[in-house]
Amino acid sequence: MKKAVKVIIPLLLAIGLGIFSVWNYIDGYVVDSSHLKMKFGEVPAGTEFADILVKEDWHRYPDGAVNVSFAPTLELDENCELAKYNEDGYASMILRTGLALLEDHELSPEVSDKHSCLGMMSGDDDIFDHIHHIKVAYCDKDGNILGITDEAEVKSAPFGRPEYTIKADGSKVELDTHIKLPFFWGVVLPAILGGILFIAAIIIAVKKSKKAKTSKSEE
Question: End-to-end CA distance of the chain, in Å?
Fold first, then answer.
């Protein structure tokens, strides 16, 4: 029994690492850094869209320039309340940072799956590298702010590639962070270790088999 265990344990570990590697290749390695999804529960009456208010170092952006073209499906101007909003360091991600483009939004009262999707302009970079606190602003079609959520802290992801989903329900907001491992750590290394353990299990099994045959021949 002890001899069998010496073969079974590395074999099971090899299979487990192989499954882990394949799973990460299929699911864990594919990160959509180009979009930021938002899901909603209760929203104020008259809400047409929602924006993320970010607490930023606004000196990073020239003159805090407003760019209404980042909300192409809406008719906003530089004088709307959202464009002018700047309290406690918070201001519009869409109109003031140039980090996000409003691509899709559906927050009608009759819709159960209220959602919004922002196209991120930061490429593969972590969009929250420099942003550590957020709020969500509910706005009408003219950019007037109908309500603002409480503050949520953004936790950094020092290891791996993060994928974020913002969930807002009335005054509550949370940011789900799903960390996905880099390709080497999530796919390559487990596959290599699994292969080594698989070979080790075979070598142990062959040695045990030869030893058993030798013992029988000596008898």
Answer: 21
Quick check: 71 and 49 in contact, CB under 8 A?
Answer: yes
Q: Which of 106, 107, 103, 81 is nearest to 92 (CA)?
A: 81
What phi and psi values does residue 35 have, to the nearest 5 degrees?
-135, 150
Count of alpha carbons within 13 Å of 10, Cβ hemisphere only? Answer: 17
- Quick one: average pLDDT of 119-143? 82
Structure tokens at 142: 């003219």
Between the alpha carbon of residue 183 and those of residues 18, 22, 61, the distances in Å are 14, 11, 33
Rounded to two decimals, the pTM is 0.70
Q: Which of 9-13, 67-71, 147-151 has the highest mean pLDDT?
A: 147-151
Mean confidence (pLDDT) of the chain: 81
- Picking from 141, 144, 130, 152, the residue whose alpha carbon sits closest to that of residue 52 is 152
At 135 the pLDDT is 96
Integer angstrom CA distances of residue 151 from 53, 163, 180? 9, 20, 25
